[in-house]
């Protein structure tokens, strides 16, 4: 049998072996097709080495200490501060010491050919891979090419920023030392999580944000994270821009803010969003714009300016690069649907692209889930009140104090948190849920199931939360909404 790693023709060629590319490859191979995956850096992508895993490892020890300190006896047992070297060493393990041997072995066992190098589309269903030694290999796809090249940190237009050699998320996630003073530009998810992590590790953190913190989440959740960061000693300069950067001869960076204030720091972390990895992919030959996000249709086929699939529909984009949801779990959800769809098409089967169908990615629009690992955590699914109103839903907004739930009061003394459900008043179903508070992450999946299954609130009254758990928030929210009498 031919060695798949030496073949040049495959059913599917995937560019990018991040979590999304890996999952597309897995599904097409499980669907009976052959697949090659092209990777220019590490198999596993951003998430494994510079994003989800190492950043959550940086946050976890401090969260455990906080949880213990919220209880009188356990708090007594916690003495001293965090051992920074041990936190960084555990982070290194979670980043697999930046070695992809394990993930490359997994590809091999799964029967997926790994081609190392930079991939470019050089013709219809053709990808040319340039290795680090400059040699090229041409791969031909029989059915489809999938772009899963992810995204990189975007630098904001701050004068002379490049001269101060700022950190981006990669440098923060892989930091070898904890700077005494860290300035963060950007108050989104990366900025807020890294402010939480580095202040707990001992940095004096100053965060500058154009907007309120976490502008994508419900304002009450953003407010609680803002208050907690302030209480932890983080200096927040909100609704301001950094305009200029300069590093002096002693190594100190000086940032000028739009109101004229100056911020001094040892390092600057830029966390102002992402830019797609599409600059050098050969997209210009296909009438697409290099460096732009890749617009896709419901089947994740890349579409041109006319909204129609490029070519005869052989080119797909999944994960960060299509900008539908810049989250690993949503990218992998897209990958499962797309991999199955490519296999189904290749076997001459009909696709099921109706809402919630097997090959559809409906949850990207109706039930996006996210946990933000700040202190307190934020967990959200579906629409916020603002987004639901903007989308034209007639809604009821129901709020409840999480700290008033018996399970939360037991969980931590002085538990502070809040939950909100957004109800589609016409259908009486949940279309959004947000919770903020210590350890709310694991509350999220119950809400996700209610939103995706479109469970009526009448039925949710029969989902009895165990006593005394934090999940009793569901009962409290239903009570706050009031039991409605069915008129039919
Ligand atoms: C600091 C940070 C923390 C995050 N934390 C979380 C979190 O907790 N939970 C969560 O769900 N999401 C998180 N995210 C988002 C998550 O990292 C991304 O959504 C996810 O990595 C996207 O996966 P992907 O496969 O689309 O792209 P990537 O992970 O970026 O992988 C793309 C791969 O393609 C390769 N590639 C690119 N161009 C080429 C080319 N031309 N040829 C060959 N290979 C190429 C790259 O080297 C890379 O390996 C975080 C992001 C950041 C920045
Ligand atoms: N826990 C998680 O799920 C997690 C963790 C980290 C990152 N991520 C994902 O990674 C993606 C990238 O995160 P991010 O924080 O870089 O982006 P983001 O889009 O969440 O936030 C970027 C922030 O930077 C601000 N900004 C933009 N331009 C600016 C400028 N010139 N000056 C000052 N501020 C500016 C924006 O107003 C926004 O607040 C997000 O989409 C997020 O979903 C997820």
From TrEMBL:
Pyridine nucleotide-disulphide oxidoreductase dimerisation domain: residues covered: 370-474
UniProt keyword list: FAD, Flavoprotein, NAD, Nucleotide-binding
Binding of NAD(+), residues: 186-193, 273
Gene Ontology molecular functions: dihydrolipoyl dehydrogenase (NADH) activity; flavin adenine dinucleotide binding
Cofactor note as given: Binds 1 FAD per subunit.
Positions with a binding annotation for FAD: 56, 119, 149-151, 320
Disulfide bonds: 47-52
Protein's GO biological process: 2-oxoglutarate metabolic process
Domain FAD/NAD(P)-binding: 10-331
PANTHER family linked to this entry: DIHYDROLIPOYL DEHYDROGENASE, MITOCHONDRIAL, DISULFIDE OXIDOREDUCTASE
Assigned protein family: Belongs to the class-I pyridine nucleotide-disulfide oxidoreductase family.
Designated name of the protein: Pyridine nucleotide-disulphide oxidoreductase dimerization region
């Amino acid at each position: 049998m031919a060695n798949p790693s030496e073949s040049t023709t495959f059913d599917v060629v995937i560019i990018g072996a991040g979590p999304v590319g890996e999952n597309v490859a897995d599904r097409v191979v499980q669907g009976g097709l052959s697949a090659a995956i092209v990777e220019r850096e590490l198999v596993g992508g951003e998430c494994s080495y510079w994003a989800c895993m190492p950043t959550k490892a940086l946050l976890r020890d401090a969260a455990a200490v906080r949880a213990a300190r919220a209880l009188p006896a356990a708090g007594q047992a916690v003495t001293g501060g965090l051992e920074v070297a041990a936190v960084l060493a555990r982070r290194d393990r979670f980043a697999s010491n930046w070695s992809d041997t394990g993930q490359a072995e997994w590809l091999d066992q799964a029967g997926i050919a790994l081609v190392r190098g930079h991939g470019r589309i050089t013709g219809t269903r053709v990808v040319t891979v340039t290795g680090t030694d400059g040699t090229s290999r041409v791969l031909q796809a029989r059915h489809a090419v999938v772009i899963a090249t992810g995204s990189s940190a975007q630098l904001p237009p701050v004068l002379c920023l490049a001269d101060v050699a700022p950190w981006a998320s990669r440098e923060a996630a892989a930091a070898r030392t904890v700077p005494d003073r860290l300035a963060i530009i950007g108050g989104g998810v990366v900025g807020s999580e890294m402010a939480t992590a580095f202040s707990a590790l001992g940095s004096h953190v100053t965060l500058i944000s154009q907007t309120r913190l976490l502008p994508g989440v419900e304002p009450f959740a953003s407010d609680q994270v803002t208050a907690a960061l302030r209480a932890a000693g983080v200096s927040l300069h909100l609704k301001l821009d950094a305009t200029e950067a300069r590093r002096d001869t002693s190594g100190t960076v000086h940032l000028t803010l739009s109101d004229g204030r100056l911020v001094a720091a040892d390092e600057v972390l830029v966390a102002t969003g992402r830019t797609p990895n599409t600059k050098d992919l050969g997209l210009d030959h296909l009438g697409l714009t290099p460096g732009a996000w890749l617009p896709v249709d419901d089947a994740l086929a890349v579409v041109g300016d006319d909204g129609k699939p490029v070519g005869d529909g052989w080119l797909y984009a999944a994960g960060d690069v299509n900008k539908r949801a810049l989250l690993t779990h949503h990218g992998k959800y897209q990958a499962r649907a797309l991999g199955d769809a490519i296999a189904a098409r290749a076997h001459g089967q009909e696709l099921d692209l109706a809402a919630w169908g097997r090959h559809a990615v409906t949850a990207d629009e109706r039930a996006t889930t996210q946990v933000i690992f700040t202190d307190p955590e934020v967990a959200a699914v579906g629409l916020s009140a603002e987004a639901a109103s903007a989308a034209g839903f007639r809604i009821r907004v129901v709020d409840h104090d999480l700290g008033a739930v018996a399970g939360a009061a037991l969980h931590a003394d002085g538990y502070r948190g809040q939950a909100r459900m957004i109800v589609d008043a016409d259908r009486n179903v949940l279309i959004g849920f947000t919770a903020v508070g210590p350890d709310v992450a694991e509350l999220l999946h119950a809400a996700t199931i209610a939103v995706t299954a479109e469970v009526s609130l009448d039925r949710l009254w029969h989902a009895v939360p165990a006593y005394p758990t934090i999940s009793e928030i569901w009962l409290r929210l239903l009570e706050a909404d009031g039991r409605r009498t069915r008129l039919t």
